[in-house]
Structure prediction request, 412 residues.
Amino acid sequence: MMLNTALFLESLAYLGKGMLGILIVMLLLAGCIALLNRIFHE
Amino acid sequence: MEYLYENILLLDWKMVVMWAIGGLLIYLAIKKDMEPSLLLPMGFGAILVNLPMSGAVTQGAEEGVLDVLYNAGIANELFPLLLFIGIGAMIDFGPLLQNPKLLVFGGAAQLGIFLTLSLACLFGFDLQDAASIGIIGAADGPTAIFVSQWYGSSYTGAIMVAAYSYMALVPLVQPVVIRALTTKKERLIRMPYQPANVSRTTRILFPILVTIVAGLIVPRSVALVGFLMFGNLLRECGVLNSLSETAQNVLANLITIFLGITIASRMQAEQFLSPDTLLILALGLLAFVFDTAGGVLCAKIINLFARNKVNPMIGACGISAFPMSSRVVHKMGLKEDPQNFLLMHAAGVNVGGQIASVIAGGLLLNLIAR
Prediction:
């Protein structure tokens, strides 16, 4: 089996972008929910 | 008499191997209770499509019923989206809404998707197939189908077998990884649960908010997130109980029946029996391991700075695989300390993981062109 190191190295950029992106979206959502809870608490 | 045995002569050993694989899936579904709603139809379907000149799949000009179903519901990503309405209606996001910080673990536990994508590239898959394999790490069948179909991957059958099998194996896979990455002291960390009321307005606004935020940042996730959140809105609005129940039961069950057996149309021997399938199964297992590790390590990093320590085991629930993962962690917590009740925290992370996995799927579609 041939290992494709060039594509592997290229794909590491997606690893970085993907994890950064998902963590930012999650933090944003967490902030929005906290805001909702503060505004509409019972 | 030739007409009685001429078809039997077309049988080859690969078809028999696929019958054995189908039989194994049926066995695991019935005897081991492993994701029976999907593995049983897939197992039966694997036998159905691997009979010589099977009329269930297209033979020359004669279109087979499974291919008709495939084109009608999977090739255009319709079935996974409809199933998401049912899943959204089933999920109570309450534990997450009480403690929204738990969403971070859901994000961290998507590490397996992107790390497996890189590994698949290393092993020679092209970027689109690698993304389709990486999405096994979403631990979420409909998302995996949606993404692999988007990229037109020829490995959909193997990807689905891996995704659903490992979801069923979460109780075996996760404890090993969690124990390897945590100390006894960490597993004993208690997390007191303070129930907080979440207002009905918040519950109703939540699915709308998630759809808008995810849609603005990750537009390709809108179909996935939107259908999931539409189902949840049906549940939470309080005026559509009968629709919510239909989505949770009738709709979800109907789609599940068709989904499993239709996926099997991509389990024909010529496509399925290849070294690539074994590689995909191995990469799928690694995806689940990396997911679990990502969530646990995120919790450990947070503990370096946080005043109120988090039991790192709950990070593992960000894998999605709802509700199995939270049950596994809850049981592990009780085993270490019979007074340590982690269920609500674990459930919060788990439903957060469900949202994160869907958004991560959309993120993949945004990052990698088809």
User: Anything to note?
Assistant: The interface with chain B takes residues 1-5, 7-8, 10-12, 14-15, 17-19, 21-34, 36-37, 40-42 of chain A (CB under 8 Å). Residues 5-39 of chain A form the longest helix (35 residues). Residues 5 and 11 of chain A are 10 Å apart (CA to CA). The mean pLDDT of chain A is 91.
